[in-house]
Amino acid sequence: MSDKLNQWFSGKQSEWEARCHNCGACCGAFEDPCEHLHIGREGASTCLVYEQRLGPQRTVSGQIFNCVNIREKSGQSWPGDHHCAYKL
Questions:
Q1: Considering its fold, how many domains does the chain have in total?
Q2: Domain carrying residue 56
Q3: pLDDT tens digits, residue range 1-55?
Q4: Assigned domain for 41 exists
Q5: For residue 61, is it within any domain?
Q6: Given this model, what pLDDT does residue 71 score?
């Protein structure tokens, strides 16, 4: 892939990621959250393993699930999804 195309994709990825306002809904904040979901003092959430998040993960209660890219999940419904900036 050319450098110019890589830069374009990188910019689009950054643009997409910037939509998130860290509500944590897609990570189960309003149900059984992923064990890697960290909610800060101001209420914003972050993933402690963000770069390695995709694939098998575990919830706080021990349930195993596959973490997927938000683009795959945004067409679905889940508890708290009305908070998600990708679905607004």
A1: 1
A2: 23-83
A3: 678 767 776 777 778 778 888 899 989 999 999 999 999 988 889 999 998 999 9
A4: yes
A5: yes
A6: 80
Half-sphere exposure of 71 (CA within 13 A, CB side): 4
Six-digit token pair at 83? Answer: 């908070």
Beta-ladder partners of 59: 34
Amino acid 7 reads: Q
In a domain, 16, yes or no: no
Q: How far apart are CA 36 and CA 1, in angstroms?
A: 33
Joined together, the tokens standing for residue 22 give 């860290």
With 90 as the cut, is the pLDDT of residue 68 above it? no
pTM of the predicted model as reported, rounded to 2 decimal places = 0.74
What is the per-residue pLDDT for 11?
Answer: 73
Please enumerate in sequence order all residues whose Cβ is within 8 A of that of 28, keeping only pairs 6 or more positions apart, or say none. 34, 37, 59, 78, 79
